Amino acid sequence: MVIVLVNPIGYPATTAVRLVTRRLVEADGLTAVRMNPVKSLSPANSNIAGQARMDFSGRFAKNGAVISIVGRCTTMTGVDSIHNVTVTVCVEALKDAWDVVLRDANRMLASVARSI
Known about the structure:
With 116 residues, the protein is of the alpha+beta class. The chain contains two helices and six strands; from the N terminus they run βαβββββα. The chain has helices at 13-28, 98-115; strands at residues 2-7, 31-35, 39-41, 48-62, 65-78, 86-94. Strands 1, 2, 3, 4, 5 and 6 form a six-stranded antiparallel sheet that branches. The protein is elongated and about 50 Å long. The two termini are 22 Å apart. The model has no long low-confidence stretch (mean pLDDT 93).
């Protein structure tokens, strides 16, 4: 699953990614959740003032079935003088499919970064 959130206000990337990740985990109803600390990243390009990511994992249970989910949210905040926006891209996948999904997600994230 991929979720892209765009906010027309430039929030600090480390603050925004933490908030969005927590809300996503709550909305999914995941249990046994593990959230890694927020990691500040070097901006992907000169139009990005701040970039951060947060990885997480948990279990989703429904109708007796339990599956392991892993995910990552990455937030980019544009520079004030160009696009003062905050964009968060969250990706979730089955644990077994994470490597393939992450590869594609990184390509998508690079495309989003170029559009800011």
